[in-house]
Specification:
homodimer, 471 residues, alpha/beta, Aspartate Aminotransferase, domain 1, Aspartate Aminotransferase, domain 2, seven-stranded mixed sheet, four-stranded mixed sheet, 15 helices, 17 strands, 37% helix, aminotransferase (chains A, B), 4-aminobutyrate aminotransferase (chains A, B)
Chain lengths: 471, 471
C-alpha cells in the first residue's frame, strides 16, 4: 500500500471539473462577498477544505483539482492528513491555542518536548533552533542573530556595551545602531517586511513605495540547460557570480555582515545554483567574516529530495543559519554555533518567541516524513516525473523550455515562450482540473506534496500533454 | 454569579506557595533542561497550564499564583477558558491548523465568517482589518499600508508606476524605494524587527547591534501626578511635546509619512498621554499629510475600560490605522479609508496573510467580551482597585509613587524609589503568590485579565500591603 493510500484511502482518482470557467459561479459569488471584508482580488477560487483530500483540493463549485502548487508551496503531506488531524486535536494543542504562552518567560512543561520534536527536522550540521512566525520573520530574526554575532566578534562576545553604544542606539545612530549590510542576490525572494524586503529583488510589486536599506545585490547564476551539455559555460557562470559577490563584500560602502541566498531561487523563477557555487560562497564568507544564511523557506522539508535542499551541496563547514517556514508550518532558523545565542538574554526575544500550536504540527510533520521515508519517495517520483516531462519537452519544445530540477525530486520548473503563454497555461490547467503555480514571468513551478506519487504524476503529465496539444 | 464563577467554578480562592524560592526546584530543573534546546535565561518558572485556571497560573512545583501580568499582558480572559476551549476544538480550527491556507489565493469557505467575527472587535470609527501574525508584524504591515497610501497621494491613487520607479526599486534606490520616515516617540515600544525596531526606543537591549532607519523620535509627555492637581503643568507639557512633533515633521531631512504612538507607553514605563495630546496629534498629522497610527498591541481589547484605549480620547476624525496583537491573540491593523487598500493586488500580501487559527480564537474572545459586558466590568473593578492602591500609596509613599491609570480600568502602574526596590518587589510578590510584571526601570504594571474581579483585587492588595510592610 502506498503512503497516499494509507493516509487517504478515499483520495479521488482523477480531477473533477464541473464549471467551464475558473473561478466557477459559486466561487465568484464567494470572492465578491469575501471582498467586502478582505482583499480578495488575488483569490483563484474559494476552497472547500472539508472536501479536499490528499493531493486534491476541492472548491465550492464541486471542482476537484489535482494540486501541484499546494497552497503557495506550503502544504507538505496533503489535505486532511490523519496524523495532523490527531495532532490538532491533542490536549497540548488545545493548551497552545487557549493559553498561548509567552514561552520566553512562562513556558509550559510540554515546551521542551515540542521543541525536541521540531529539532528532529534539523538539517545535517545544525542542532539548534530559534522559533518565529513566518518566512519573513524567520529571515529577519536570522539577520538579528547575524548582526549580534558579527558585532560580538569585533567587540568580544562577553564585552559589555559602551556608554556611547547605549546612548546612540536610542537615536538609531552608530555605533549603537551600526551601519551594516546583508548581501543578497538579484531575483531573490526573502519576504516583504522592511529588512526582508530590502534583500528581496524578484518583482517591483513586492517592494514599491517602501523605504529600503541600501544593501548590495549580487548576481545569481543563470545556467544554460541541459546542465550536462553546458558544464563549461555554467562553471564559468559560477566563477563570474562568485567574483561579483567578493567584489561587493570588499567594496560596499558599509560592512557586509551577512549573506542570504536560496538554494533554488523560487519566486524569482526557479533558478538553480550548483554545489560548487554554494561551496564558493562558503569559502568567501569565511574569508571575509560574513555570516552565511541559507533561506530554505520554500525549498525545505523534503521538496528537493533531501530534507533540506542545501544538503545536496555538502557545504563544508555547514552554513551558519538556515531559515525555514511554509511547508514546515512553523518558522525560524537552525544554527549550530552556540555563539549565535546572544551574550545577554532579552536580545533575541519577543512576546511569543514562536508559536507552539504550529510547532506541534511541525513536529508531527517531521515524524510522518521520517517514519514513512517520504523524502526518498519524493526523490523517486521526482525522477519519474522529470523523465516524463523531458519527453514532453521534445514534443513541445516551444512550451517546455529550460526544464530544470533534475535530481531535485519534484522541485521542477520550466519556461514558456512568453508571459502570456505561461499565464494561459496556468489557467487552462485549472480548467482541466490541475492547480499549478507560476514563478517569475514565464516559468511554471511544480510544488506538489510529499505524498505525490507516480499515479499522480501520470495524471498531471497526461493533462499537460492534452492542454499543450491544443495550445 | 460573577463571570469568573461562571467560567471557572473551580478557580482557586487564594494563591498557594509551596517553595521558598521562585523558581522552585522542579522549575529550576526544567529551566536547565529546557536550556539545552531554548534560551531559557529569561524564564521565571515552568508553568503547568493544565492546572492553571482563570486568574491563577500554576507552576510545576505546585505554586499557584494570582496572575496580574497574564503572560506578557497577553491573556484576555484567564486560563482554560471554556469558550476558548470549545473554539479550539471546533472543526474549523482543525482545518485552520491542518490545511493552513494561503488565504490570499485559496481561502476556505469559512474565512469570511472568521473575519467578520474578528471585525466585531473593531474600534469605533474603523470597519476594516488586515491580518498579521504579531505586534511587530502588525506595525510593519501598517507601515507598508501607510507608505503606499502616502505615495499614492503624491502620485495619484490610480497612476501607474513609472519605468524609473520599477527600475530603481530593484536596487533599493529612490524613487522606487523612497526615503520616507515614520515618526515615533522616545520610550516607545513597537516591536523588535527592523522597521518596528527603528521606532522602538524604550531600552538599548531591544536594539543594540541592529541597523536602523534614521527616523525621528519626538517626546512623549511626562506628566506630574496626581493629574487633577497638576492640570496646568500637564497641559503645558502636552503643548511642548506637540510643538516638538510638528517641528520634527517639518524639519526632518526626509519626509515623515507616518506617525506611530501608543495610547499608554507600556514597555516604556506606563506613560499616559491626554485626550488633548492625542487630538493635537490628529490635527498636526492632518495638517501635514502624515498617516496617524495608534499602536494598541498592549492597550487593546478592553484592558483600559474601553474596548480600545484610544476610544477614551474621542479623536476626530478617527486615527488612520490602529494596530493590535497580544490579548487579541490574532494581530493586524484596523482601518476605515478604503484607499488604505493598495491600488493593485499583491502589494500588501504574503503566503499566509494572517493566521485563521488565531483569528478563530480572536473572534471567540470578542464574542465572550461583548456578551458578558467584560469591558464595563473591568472599568468597575479597575476603579475599585485604583482606590485601594491610592490608600496604600498614602501608607507607603516611597514605594508607591506616581500611581497612574485612574479611570483606565485595571491598566494601573506606579513607580518605586529605585530599580533595585522595584525588582525586589516583583520577586517578593511572586514569593507570596502573585505574578506581577514591571516596565521601564522603576515601574510596576498591572495587566490582569478581564475576569479579574473585586475578590481578586482584594487578594492582590492584601498581599501587596503585607510585602510592603516588610520592605
Amino acid at each position: 500500500m502506498s503512503v497516499s493510500e494509507k493516509y487517504y484511502p478515499a483520495e479521488p482518482t482523477a480531477p473533477v471539473v464541473k464549471t467551464t470557467t475558473i473561478p466557477g459561479p459559486e466561487s465568484a459569488k464567494g470572492i465578491k462577498s469575501l471582498g467586502e471584508v478582505f482583499d480578495s482580488r488575488p483569490v483563484y477560487f474559494i476552497a472547500d477544505y472539508e472536501k479536499s483530500l490528499g493531493n486534491y483540493i476541492a472548491d465550492v463549485d464541486g471542482n476537484v483539482y489535482l494540486d501541484v502548487y499546494a497552497q503557495i508551496a506550503s502544504i507538505a503531506l496533503g489535505y486532511n492528513n490523519p496524523a495532523l488531524i490527531e495532532a490538532a486535536k491533542s490536549p497540548e494543542m488545545i493548551r497552545a491555542l487557549v493559553e498561548r504562552p509567552a514561552i520566553g518567560n512562562f513556558p509550559g512543561k510540554d515546551l521542551e518536548g515540542i521543541i525536541k520534536n521540531v529539532l528532529k527536522g534539523a538539517p545535517k550540521g545544525q542542532n539548534n533552533v530559534w522559533n518565529g512566525l513566518s518566512g519573513a520573520d524567520a529571515n529577519e530574526l536570522a539577520f538579528k542573530a547575524a548582526f549580534m554575532y558579527y558585532q560580538s566578534k569585533q567587540r568580544g562576545y562577553d564585552t559589555a556595551f559602551s556608554a556611547q553604544e547605549n546612548e546612540t542606539v536610542m537615536k538609531n545612530q552608530s555605533p549603537g545602531s551600526p551601519d551594516l549590510a546583508v548581501l543578497s542576490f538579484k531575483r531573490a525572494f526573502h519576504g516583504r517586511l522592511f529588512a526582508s524586503g530590502s534583500v528581496t529583488a524578484s518583482k517591483p510589486v513586492h517592494k514599491l513605495d517602501f523605504p529600503a536599506f541600501k544593501w548590495p545585490k549580487a548576481e545569481y547564476p543563470s545556467y544554460k540547460y541541459p546542465l550536462a551539455e553546458n558544464a563549461e559555460y555554467n562553471a564559468a557562470e559560477d566563477a563570474r557570480c562568485l567574483k561579483i559577490v567578493e567584489e561587493l563584500i570588499t567594496s560596499w560602502h558599509i560592512p557586509v555582515a551577512a549573506l542570504i541566498i536560496e538554494p533554488v531561487q523560487s519566486e524569482g523563477g526557479d533558478n538553480h545554483g550548483s554545489a560548487a557555487f554554494f561551496q564558493g560562497l562558503r569559502d568567501i564568507t569565511l574569508k571575509h567574516n560574513v555570516v552565511y544564511i541559507i533561506d530554505e523557506v520554500q525549498t525545505g522539508l523534503g521538496a528537493t529530495g533531501k530534507l533540506w535542499a542545501h544538503e545536496h551541496f555538502n557545504i563544508t563547514p555547514s552554513p551558519d543559519l538556515v531559515t525555514f517556514s511554509k511547508k514546515f508550518q512553523s518558522a525560524g532558523y537552525w544554527f549550530h554555533d552556540p555563539k549565535f545565542v546572544p551574550n545577554q538574554s532579552y536580545r533575541q526575544f519577543n512576546t511569543w518567541c514562536g508559536d507552539p500550536a504550529h510547532m506541534i504540527i511541525a513536529g508531527a510533520l517531521v515524524k510522518e516524513i521520517q517514519e514513512n521515508d517520504l523524502v526518498a519517495k519524493a526523490a523517486e517520483v521526482g525522477d519519474y516525473l522529470y523523465g516524463k516531462l523531458a519527453e514532453l519537452a521534445v514534443k513541445y519544445p516551444q512550451h517546455i523550455q529550460k526544464l530544470r530540477g533534475q535530481g531535485k525530486a519534484t522541485f521542477i520548473a520550466w519556461d514558456l515562450e512568453s508571459a502570456d503563454k505561461r499565464n494561459a497555461l496556468l489557467y487552462k490547467m485549472k480548467q482541466n482540473g490541475v492547480n499549478v503555480g507560476g514563478c517569475a514571468d514565464v516559468s511554471v513551478r511544480l510544488r506538489p506534496t510529499l505524498t505525490f506519487e507516480k499515479k499522480h504524476a501520470d495524471i498531471f503529465v497526461s493533462i499537460l500533454d492534452k492542454v499543450l496539444s491544443d495550445f
